[in-house]
Specification:
It is a single chain. The chain has helices at residues 7-13, 22-33, 55-59, 62-74, 87-102, 119-130, 136-139, 160-179, 181-188, 197-212, 218-233, 238-250, 253-256, 276-287, 294-301, 308-320, 325-336, 348-351, 356-376, 394-400, 427-432, 441-452, 480-488, 491-505, 539-549, 551-567, 576-588, 593-602, 604-607; strands spanning 115-116, 257-258, 272-273, 389-392, 411-414, 519-520, 523-524, 528-530, 536-538, 608-609. With 612 residues, the protein is mostly helical. A two-stranded antiparallel ribbon has the order 1-2. A two-stranded antiparallel ribbon has the order 3-10. The chain has a two-stranded antiparallel ribbon with strand order 4-5. Strand 6 (519-520) and strand 7 (523-524) form a beta hairpin. The two termini are 33 Å apart.
């Protein structure tokens, strides 16, 4: 009997602790840590938490309590000037609020906005469909990002300019295909188009079913066939007429968009399970950023893809395939931000000796291969936080001051010391979190909190001020660090900068190009600091040591980012139990990367869709 994948199994495996109640467990913690400033008498920032007497009251104001949860989870509240919140109390408060805000009841799929193919997905799909390479950056305008990624339905607008470019690119593609005998034969099934109208219709059906990523209906085929036959009657030869039919398919919404249709008769407003064809498409664009291959289409045709064993086997097969490198290039590059290294600049006159501009592509490869290697070998995701190896070639190794690496081919190399390790030792990250002339402890610290730990600090207050563009001591003789400390004395800025700046200061031994330095303008680099929790750290090695203690927070954030990327919508409060269940499986596996990815694919929101 076919065993369908359901979220119940994930939830069952993720039960780790009894739920906390608002009145007995959470409210006493809030009373001791929060009500003094955010209560009935004093409500700083317009926030009154004391008035919520029950879980129902809490759920009645999700915006306020979501903000409170984010501040507590990120360590921004209580502020440094208030009594510290014990680690266990903070953990209980975060877990309890997350559970209560998620609410009770069955999982929900949410309603992602209809997604079109992004420009890189379009290019990869065209190559798979027609065998024709496309330069995505030149062919189509860039896609807007939303929630960190450029494949979110909410930001995938269709402008007149975009449709004009689709038409132009389609003409160029068809010129190449129909002028090349092998490509034309692969498309038409023969050296020349068939003379028989029924055979032409059969060719169109095969092509449409691949392009639409589902079986084309008789009505759809009849419409394209009539277009072809009308062109024939108008004087076009068979090849030109078939070209017109193919063009209409490539400009169809069913090709450009990833359509996930509600089943006939399904009640409005209720979630529905994706059919095998839609699931094959969602899976393929998640892991490969392109259309399903023959194996996925065959499983969908046989109605077997939703069988748990088949789905798990496909995830394994697809991650073993070289096409899964798309996860590094499309997911990790946007999540970690190392896609920006390709166009990053520094002041050449300051850094002219280290060939930074010639190394940007290699720095990108270091980060991309590090992520891809974890996926390919199913290694722990926590190696992104700390590792004793990285991907280098001779040029990048020289830049890093590492001996023994020869040749221009990228190779996995053991690190000789503890200066580097994980993403915080990679030039792509260190450079993109710096300005052109100097490092930025604040930007680097914010990146650690937001990108690695998923706890973004609040936006700066108005008129917060800015530090100089250069790191040379000012006229008053103050170093950049001294100016930072002076800035933190402002009460408006102190609470957040106490969380942010130490994380960046610990990385000060790395210059804006990712090169190690012991001195800055003749003075020793100061990379010793104190974290907001009072822990003293000195330099990047000890920062990484602290980050490893945050591996559960990091892994949960990675799961949230993966799920967002996979389903094309921002996560909501009701998604928390799904993330919890995937995280529980990840912990049990030793944080193996494929367990995270498999958990996303097996999750309720990945397998279902909601709609109005």
């Amino acid at each position: 009997m076919m065993r369908l994948v359901v979220i119940v199994g994930l939830l069952a495996s993720g039960v780790a602790a009894q739920p906390l109640t608002f009145s007995d467990d959470l409210r006493p913690i809030l009373a001791g840590a929060c009500f003094g400033c955010h209560g009935k008498r004093e409500h700083e920032g317009g926030i009154d938490l004391e008035s919520a007497a029950s879980a129902q009251d809490l759920r009645g104001d999700p915006e306020t309590w979501s903000r409170a949860l984010a501040r507590v989870d990120g360590g921004f509240m209580p502020p440094a000037s208030a009594p510290a919140l014990h680690d266990q109390d903070r953990a209980d408060l975060v877990r309890g609020l997350r559970h209560l805000l998620a609410g009770e009841g069955k999982p929900r799929a949410g309603t992602p906005t209809l997604r079109r193919l992004g420009r890189f997905e379009y290019a990869r799909t065209i190559r798979a469909l027609l065998g024709t390479p496309v330069d995505a950056r030149r062919a189509l305008p860039p896609d807007a990002k939303g929630y960190g990624f450029d494949n979110m339905g909410d930001t995938m607008f269709v402008s007149p300019l975009l449709m004009e470019r689709y038409a132009e690119v389609t003409e160029q593609l068809l010129d190449e295909v129909f002028s090349d005998e092998k490509r034309r034969a692969a498309l038409l099934g023969a050296d020349s188009p068939p003379d028989d109208p029924d055979e032409r219709a059969a060719v169109l059906r095969r092509f449409m079913s691949r392009a639409f990523r589902r079986p084309a209906s008789d009505e759809e085929v009849a419409g394209r066939s009539e277009l072809v036959e009308t062109a024939r009657r108008g004087g076009d030869d068979t090849t030109e007429a078939m070209r017109a039919g193919v063009k209409s398919v490539l400009l169809s919404p069913n090709f450009i968009f990833r359509v996930e249709s509600r089943p006939d008769g399904h009640p409005a407003g209720e979630d529905w399970p994706l059919d095998d064809w839609a699931l094959a498409t969602r899976l393929s664009y998640f892991l490969w950023s392109t259309m399903p291959d023959a194996r996925l289409f065959a499983l969908a045709r046989d109605g077997k893809l939703r069988e748990e064993s088949a789905l798990v086997a496909e995830v394994t097969r697809m991650l073993d395939d070289p096409q899964s490198r798309a996860l590094a290039d499309r997911f990790a590059a946007q999540w970690l931000g190392f896609d920006a290294i390709k166009t990053k600049s520094v002041e050449v006159w300051r850094f002219k000796k280290n060939r930074f501009h010639q190394l940007r592509g290699v720095m990108y490869e270091e980060a991309a291969r590090a992520f891809d290697d974890l996926v390919r070998r199913d290694r722990p995701a926590t190696l992104l936080l700390d590792s004793d190896e990285t991907w280098l070639n001779a040029g990048l190794a020289k830049h890093y001051g590492i001996a023994g690496v020869k040749g221009q081919q990228m190779q996995l190399a053991k690190l000789p010391d503890r200066r580097r390790g994980g993403v915080l030792g990679m030039g792509a990250i260190l450079s993109t979190t710096s300005s052109d002339l100097r490092t930025s402890p604040t930007v680097r610290g914010k990146w650690v909190l937001e990108t690695l730990l998923g706890t973004p600090p609040p936006p700066p207050p108005p008129n917060a001020g800015a530090l100089p563009a250069d790191d040379k001591p000012g006229k008053d003789g103050l170093t950049l660090r001294a100016q930072l400390e002076q800035h933190r004395k402002d009460k408006k800025c102190a609470a957040c900068h106490a969380q942010i700046d130490p994380l960046g200061i610990a990385l000060e031994n790395f210059d804006p190009t990712g090169q190690w330095r012991d001195k800055l303008h003749g003075a020793p680099v100061e990379s010793s600091t104190v974290l907001a929790n009072g822990r003293k750290i000195a330099g990047p090695e000890e920062l990484r040591g602290w980050l490893v203690t945050q591996k559960d927070r990091f892994t949960r954030n990675l799961i949230e980012r993966l799920l967002t990327y996979a389903i094309g919508r921002p996560l909501a409060l009701y998604d928390a139990p799904v993330v919890d269940s995937i995280h529980a499986r990840a912990v049990a596996s030793g944080y193996r990367m494929r367990v995270l990815i498999e958990g996303v694919v097996l999750s309720y929101p990945f397998l279902h869709r909601g709609g109005p």
